[in-house]
Write a structure and sequence with these properties.
The complex is a heterodimer of chains A (about 130) and B (about 80). With about 130 residues, chain A is α+β, with helices and mostly antiparallel strands. Chain A contains three helices and seven strands; from the N terminus they run H-E-E-H-E-E-E-H-E-E. The longest helix of chain A is centred in the middle third of the chain and has 18 residues, at about 45-65. Chain B is about 20% helix and about 25% strand. The longest helix of chain B is centred in the middle third of the chain and has 11 residues, at about 35-45.
Chain lengths: ~130, ~80
């Protein structure tokens, strides 16, 4: 996942700004005090994800002066360094594009029915909310 | 057998909840149950769920705690989300 296909789909002659955010798996753990994360594993309620993503897009489009919003989220294993989530926003101008991308990520982290597990050498641990 | 004023619901579990008690729960709930009652009854039936905050959803949307529990076969108990 690198967001490029999503960006290509959302680009257009009406967009002077195309912002792509990638959330990437990092090695510092959150679920345990120390250790090295080797990978993340994501589980999702996929049908509800699609419905909730549409609601998130509608809210972002209502609050920000942007043209199009898109989201991809990994399911399954994501190695450290790789992207687990991509958000793309197309807008006429860059300031609202950046703001909308940040707002979309905030809503994804608060409401998208996805759960992540950190895989370390000694086992895997579910991560708490909002991390 | 369930009493006339209750119904059996089948609830899908996800993530840490599914690891704790399995992918599906069946519970008897009063016909006038609210969404919060489902969470409470699940924790009463499975003490390992007690203290776990969870949300309730259908396949379409999250449900609010105080709304009537809908009579649907796509109910799910979901742990606090951690996507993104």
């Amino acid at each position: 996942m690198d967001g490029r296909r999503l960006a290509e789909r959302l680009a257009g002659p009406d967009a002077g700004a195309l912002v792509t955010f990638l959330g990437t798996a990092r090695s510092a753990p959150r679920a345990v005090a120390d250790g090295e994360v080797l990978a993340l594993e994501y589980e999702a309620h996929e049908v509800l994800c699609r419905a909730e993503a549409e609601r998130i897009f509608a809210e972002v489009l209502a609050r920000h002066d942007v043209l199009r919003v898109g989201l991809e989220h990994a399911v399954g294993r994501v190695p450290v360094g790789a992207a687990g989530v991509a958000v793309v926003v197309a807008a006429a101008h860059r300031a609202p594009a950046f703001a909308a991308a940040a707002a979309t990520m905030d809503l994804v982290k608060a409401r998208l029915p996805v759960w992540k597990k950190e895989v370390l050498a000694d086992g895997a641990h579910w991560v708490g909310p909002g991390s | 057998m369930t009493s006339p004023s209750s119904r059996r619901v089948r609830v899908r579990l996800y993530a840490s909840l599914a690891e704790a008690v399995g992918p599906v729960l069946e519970l008897d709930v009063p016909d006038d149950a609210r969404v919060r009652d489902l969470a409470r009854l699940a924790a009463a039936a499975h003490p390992e769920l007690a203290g776990a905050g969870f949300g309730v959803a259908t396949a379409d949307r999250w449900l609010a705690a105080d709304e009537p529990l809908p009579d649907r076969d796509d109910l799910a108990l979901l742990p606090p989300v951690s996507g993104g």
